[in-house]
Structure formats: structure tokens, C-alpha cells
Amino acid sequence: MEQERNPRAASEQAREAIVGIDVAKAKLDVALKQPKGKWKTKVVDNTPSGFEQLRAWLAKHGVSCAHVCMEATGVYWEKVAEDLADHGFAVSVVNPAQIKDFGGAMGVRTKTDAVDAKLIAEFCDSRNPPVWQAPSRSIRRLRALVGRREALIDLRTQEQCRLEVASTEEVRRSIERVIEHLDQQITEIERQIRKDVDDDPTLRAQRELLKSIPGIGDGTAALFLSHYGGELRFDKTRQAVAFAGLDTAKRESGSSVRGKPRMSKKGHSALRKGVYMPAVTAMSRTPWGKAFATRLLAAGKPKKLVLGALMRKLVAIAYGVLKSGLPFNPALHSA
How many C-beta neighbours within 10 Å does residue 40 have? Predict the structure, then answer.
């Protein structure tokens, strides 16, 4: 995971207590390293009530301010990171590969959730990673709405597939009613997304910048805004690409190991999923996408690799227009 914009060290007060959290879908393994090196551990649910229990447990041990460190594990870290940041804790979110390498250097051979939590805390204490910048509440709300829209679209697709193989008229009518209801829900969610963006001058201007890119419509623009909108989180475009897991991972060692470069996929899966169809559209229907794909195909690259490269390019262009504040310029991408 790339470091975000405006990295800053945790304050000395926050670093009096160090907390490592091993994040899983259902639970959080927490290790508290106290100033004299003593350890306290706790397991809580990865839910809002679990977050409240975690803060109460820290307060019980006299901790009201701490440097908390966790890995960027899928999307399961986001809610607890936001909750802790909202309550004044310094939170760092690091690439799991960094923790793995640190554990190897420390000679750690045992792997359990409790051991991982302590290892994360030791990494935090030793390396003092930059503090993560929590997204604004308006961006969080937008992300929730966009996520709900995608979930409803997935449900509608499932029902449409069932409609094609419906064996009786009663089943067909039932499925059609469900699809009609889902269409209404999707329309309402999209209306709310437009209203939220329209009501925010910054997001409204950023949406227009994104829609200047051929191949990006309202849905994709809202997806990008939910992750990249508002105050920009990354200094460099490649960091925004890595956040989506669209960066290239190489595997080379000595003269014998020469693995093919692959998409890392160590990033936000919703972004990768959401940019797939816009990339397909760009490759087949836009001049800049056709030119980009033609150049790679002419160089002998397989179509699947070209599509992945176009997904990466689309995110880079999108973040580029947000960072520059200038609309898409076809002259820069037509060669």
C-alpha cells in the first residue's frame, strides 16, 4: 500500500502507547505495548460495538492517546481505522508485505493472530510509520452509497440470469417483481449520489473533470470520487494506481527466477471491479483507448494484459485530471 499525502509522524504523546491490530473479517486481535515494554492483549469483534469495547479497554489501561498500526487487509481495516481516527488516535495503515519482511528480519517463526498483532506493534514502535489520513465524512457517505449501488446491481444481474431459465410463469412473475423493485432502489440510490455530489462544490467540480474523460460516465465518476475525491490523498499518480491494486508486481531473483509481471491486486478490489467495464469501453469505443490498445497489441502483448494496462491507465488519467484540475486533453493520449 502506498503512503498517502501529507504523511506525518505520530506525536510523542501518542507514541507513549503503541497498539498493533491484526485485522480479520470478523474480529480484531489487539496488542498494547505499554511504555515499560509490558504487553496487554484483547480480542474484539470487527463491528461498531467491538470498536467501542476496544476504546473502553484502552481507557481501562490508562490509554487515551496511542499510535495504532494495522495492515491494509482487504477492506476490513477501514471501519476500525476511521473509528479510531475519529476518536483522536494516530492511525497508521501499512502494506502487509512490510510486516512480513519485518517479521523475517526479527526471526519470528510462529504465525498466529496474537503474534501478528504484537509484531505489528513492534513494527510501529520501531519504524514510526506515517499517520493515515481518514477520508471526510462526506466521502465516507458517498462510498457507502456507491457500494450499495454496486451490491444492488449485482443482485439485479443474478435475478436477470434466473429470469432466463425460469421454468414456470409464477416464478417468472416473482423474478420480474424483484427486478422492478431493484430497479427502483438503484434509481433512488443514484439520485441520492447525484444530490450529494451536487451539494458539495468540490465534488461537483471533480465529477465534471472525471466525466471529461471519454469512457467515464456518472457511475464510474462516483466510484472514483468515493475513493479519490475531496482532498487528494496521494502525491503521485502511481500511488493512486497502487491503491487500486493495479500496479505491476515483478518476481525476479538471480538468473533462474524470471516470473512474468502481474497485476499486484494488493489494493481495493471494488475499484478494480468498477474500472473493468470502463476500460473495455475505452478500448473499443474511444480514440485514446483504441490508440493505446493498438500500440500494445502491435508490440505483441496479449489482449488480457492490454486490458489490465488500460485499467491502470484509466485510473492514472482520472487521478491526473483531479490532481491538475484540468479536463482530459486528448492530444496527450492520442499518440
Answer: 16
